[in-house]
Structure formats: structure tokens, C-alpha cells
């Protein structure tokens, strides 16, 4: 396996910063999910036992908030990088390599569905396929609403001076149900659309080592390949 | 038949009347209040035309009126419990007499609600735990610590563990020091010997630093430093349990200079070629971080970890060169490292679990273990510095070449430790901590006795010493990336680079 990898040329798909941010999200998201659900299901015996391993409910709550802040710092670093990308690297925020949804994504979806049912060619993805864009925006928007509802519960005294008190309860419900949604989304959709693909099973390594082989580059991101190597095509 | 019936009725009536007369007893209340009622009847009848004055009917105390435990977890229980206390305490006549002094114990409900808007929803006996017993007298203050944690380094600039919560948080100014326990609390007798009523629940404005000046003024009775000192900085974590705060602006300046030095060093390093790239800094950072990533997520990391533990923590290479140099270096380096570990452990542990006994012991400077550890490690640093000074100026071996920057590093660290010990001694001397509580401070306590002989007002000297210590610490931080102390970063870096490059060479890059 290693010999074949060495023989084929690899390209850099993700920079070190993006790999690092992905690891920050993995670690903190997992911690948030574990501590959050343990606190939510505190009346269950096993949850009580696991929370006692963490040093009690107060410690689990502190860990939950700590991870939340850590995760959000990651988001902020990413936003800073977007500005660096635009102004220092002269990149395009809305270019074809960006994660912004485009009409091409909808035609790609239609074409992919046709392909799945045996009609026509597979869609020609650019740097990010429509599913990868959904993955990105799910996290990006999810973190904002989880952050806001979480802040409501973290500082209820402050927020109840601005909004009616029942908003705290509403925030609590949103926070829990969105957490369920997020965990299900990551566990089912994100896992299956990236890591459980037959080509890469059991794990998609490119987000961890930053590399993508020339073969997969051509096959999975043909539009970007054309842009990067216009001469060879 | 008729006569028999009549006789039967008469006999029956007499029988039951007799029974009723035998069993009837006068009402208990009537028996007790006969005199009071008798006295009241006449005036009430006279004044009915004007305004009826309703005199409070003094009801007798029944045992269970006091000896009961209302469920203060419920709103009903809280209100009934509060009402019970207010029954007496809302009256101006609620006084305590001791030593011919009258102490008013009145608590006006309306004032209390204004003064304690949050605590109005809990029962009095939730805080005043020990009053609900016989005799009805509180020996302890209100028990804040049942719900609230103590402050760490950040909020109060010092844990203030011996200071009662009320001493700072309540408005009353006079404070006193208990010479037996070393505890500071609100005084119940003012300077002129008059009793002070502490029943006002008005809180001091803690956002206003002048509220600290009830203790932190010159000539205070509790031996507090004579001015309000700033908090420690997060950089103090090198040797102390430190808060997540910048502290005095001098630390901010020092930190900026430190960052500038690090940045300048990195900038200098990136002037060189990285993997053949000469022009773009962006590409250079990308390439170097790429190779760093590859090293971290490869087997090489274990080799680097080994170097970190053996060559950096335990200083193996220095030990191989010379046992004497290793010992001297270890006295300074290992002691600072251990104080850093202890400080980090305390700060993080206290953040997560402020109520644990271990954390309370670790943030307490007077606790036997904490004081002993700090004194011992400080003494080690001082011995190491003295040894180095002796090497340079008295023994003068051939390999030692003294430069000015070497002297500067030695002077800063040496003075820092010396002033640290004097600070500790001044704190012990001025606050009057009982001798049995300072057993751990085997350097500080004897030094405090010496300072006591000097007869200075150490609470007035303390702020100057503190600023001197803080200024030297800031100087050390600012000096780290420039002079002699730069080796703290460059030497480990050299070891790592040599390991990765796989060659033994004297110079880096």
C-alpha cells in the first residue's frame, strides 16, 4: 500500500491550519456531546456514574463550557483566516473553489441523482462537492445557534434583562434538540458521505495528512484539477 | 306513667348537669390572661367611640413555636420562617444587653429586601445556621460558604482566606483581628468602646476599590498592606498560583516586549531558506508547519518526547558534561519548573473544583505544605544563584567567561527570590498570624521574627516590596527572549532540530 502511495504523486488539499482546526472541532465536539448528554440525562444511573468519573456535575458543566469556548475560538480563527485569504493571499471569497453554494451545486445534485439511477454521467465537482458544502454550513450555522442558546443558559440573569424569561426555557429546548440533530448529522451524514465511501473506507485521510493523490484528485474534483493543471488536461 | 316520665327527665337533667359541672374546666388562655384582659376591658370600652386601639395580644409561647423545622426548601416554609424571625426582629425594641451596652438587633423587612434583592427569597436560618437553637444566640457569622466558594487569586488579588466574607462585602467599616486564629472580621465594638449593630444587611460596592480601604490603609488594625495592591499577572504562573489576568500595566508592557522578542526571533529565523523557498513568508510558514505536522504525527515524536524528558527536564547532556554544573543548574531550573507545575496544578484545579480541601490548602499561603514547598524551592533557587555567583567571582574555572548579560540574569533572579522571602516574612510579621500556623514557612517565619526586631511598620513597607518584586518579575519576563535567558527557548529547540536533522552539529539552521 505504501509503495503505491509513494509512486503516485500527491497534492496538498488542506493546509496545516485547516487540519488543526478540524482536530480542534473533533475533540471539542466530542467532549461537548458527551458532557452535554450526560448532564441532560442526569436521572439515568449510568449518566450519574460517568459524570462522577469527571468529578461531578459542576465539573462536567465547566468542561462543557470550556470546550464550547475552545471550539468557538476555532471558529473565530477560521474567520480570521478567511480575511487573511481574501486580503493577504488575494483569494476569492465567492470563487469556484469557495464553499459558497452556487447554482452548479443544484445541477450537480440533479445530475448525481440521475447518475445514481443509471442515467447520464457523474457530476464534475469543483474543490468542494455539494455534500461537503452542506457539511461545512451545517457546522458554521449550527455553532452560531448552539452558541447563542448556550450563552442564554450560561448567563440567564443577563439575557432575561433583555428578553422575556421564558426565552431561557426556549433556548434550553433548542439547545438540546439541535444537539441531537448535530450528533445525528455528524454520526450519520458526515461519516457516510466522507469516511464510509468505498474508495477511502475506513477513513478519509486527506483532512488529517492534508494530501490527496493525483488519481483521486482527477476523479473526485475534476473541475479543480482542470484549474490547477490546465496544461496537462 | 306521667309521673315516672317526669321523674326520669328530672333525674336525667340533674345527672348530666352534674357530669357537665364535674368535667368542665376553665379555658387555658383565660386562666393565663385573666389579669391582662381585666386590665384591658375598661379602657377599650371607653374609647370605642374614637379610634379603637388594638393592643397586641401577647400570645403564650408554645414549645413548637420555636422548636420546629420549617421546610425552607419551599416558598411557604421560607415565608413562614422569615415571618417567625421578623416577629421579634422587626421591632425597634429587639435589643441585646451585655456589659451594660444595648445592641439593637432590629432588621427592617423593607430595608432587607432592598439591601439583599437576591437573598430575600431564602430563609434567614439558611444563612444564620446556628441561631435556631437554645440559647438563641449566634456564635458564628452567617454561613456564606455553604453556597458560595472562596475567591481565587483573581477577584480579591489574593485568596483572603483568613478574612470573613462580611468583612469586605458588608458596608460596616470597623474591622478587627482575632489574635488567636488570625481571622479578620467586622468589629462588633468600635474604637471608642461602643457596640456596633451589625444587623444592617447593606452590601459594600465591591466594584469600587475604595471599599478595600477599610483594611488597606496605613495604620489599619488588622496588619493588611497599607495600600490596595494590583492582582498578580498570569505570567506569575512561573513561580506562583496566578489568575487569568494581566494585572498591573507594567506586566502588560513586559508581555508586549516578550512577544516582540519572540516575534523578532521567529522573523529572524524565517529570513533563511525553508525547503528551498526563499521569497514568500506565507510559503515558508506553510512548508515549515507542514514538516512540523509530519514530525508530530509520525514515530519521530517519540524520539522528541524522549529528548524532552531526558535532555530538557532532567538535563542529561549537562549531567554528562559536569556533575557540578548540573547540580548548580538544577537547583535553579528544577525548582522553577516544580513551582510552575505546582502553580499550574493549583490554578487549574481551583478553577474546576474550588471546594476541594486539597485546592483550599494549595491556595492558602499559610498552609504547612504550601508554605514549606514554596520556601524550600525558593531556597534552592537562591542557593543555585549563590553557587553560580561563587563560580564566576571566587572559583573562576577556565571555561567560565563572565559577560554583563550573565550578571544581569543572576542579579534579577537572585533579587527576585530575596525580595520574595522578605515579602513573605513581612506578611507574617504584619498580619500577626499565630506561630502555630506558620510552621511550614521555615524560612519566612524566622525571618519574620528578625523583621519584628527591626521595629518597622511592615504593613506600610509591604506595598513597596511588592512593587519591587513585581517590577523585577516583569523585567525577567521582558528579558527572557533577549539576553542570557534566551537559552530557555533556543537550547531545547537546538536539541529537537538536531534530532530531526539526524546530525550532531554545533549550530542550528
Briefly characterize the structure:
The complex is a heterodimer of chains A (233) and B (509). Chain A contains 11 helices and 2 strands, in the order αβααααααααβαα.
Description:
The complex is a heterodimer of chains A (233) and B (509). Chain A has 233 residues and is mostly helical. Chain A is elongated and about 60 Å long. Chain A starts with a helix and ends in a 5-residue tail after the last helix. Chain B is an all-alpha fold. Chain B has 3 domains: 83 residues, no CATH class; 77 residues, no CATH class; 266 residues, no CATH class. Chain B has 19 helices and 4 strands. In chain B, a hairpin with a 6-residue loop joins strand 3 and strand 4. In chain B, helix 13 packs antiparallel against helix 15. Chains A and B meet through helix 2 and helix 4 of A and helix 10 of B.
Please tally the helical runs of chain A, counting DSSP H or I stretches of 4 or more residues: 11
Structural class of chain A: mainly alpha
> What form of chain A results from the Cα inertia axes?
elongated
Count of DSSP-assigned helices of chain B? 19
* Run of helices and strands of chain B: HHHHEEHHHHEEHHHHHHHHHHH
Write the layout of secondary structure elements.
The complex is a heterodimer of chains A (233) and B (509).
Chain A: H1 2-7, E1 10-12, H2 16-40, H3 45-54, H4 57-87, H5 103-116, H6 130-154, H7 156-159, H8 166-195, H9 206-209, E2 211-213, H10 214-220, H11 222-228
Helix pairs in contact in A: 2-3, 2-4, 4-6, 6-8, 10-11
Chain B: H1 2-23, H2 28-47, H3 63-66, H4 75-89, E1 95-98, E2 101-104, H5 109-115, H6 124-127, H7 153-156, H8 165-169, E3 175-177, E4 184-186, H9 249-269, H10 281-296, H11 300-313, H12 316-321, H13 323-352, H14 357-363, H15 368-395, H16 404-431, H17 444-454, H18 458-479, H19 487-501
Antiparallel strand pairs in B: 1-2, 3-4
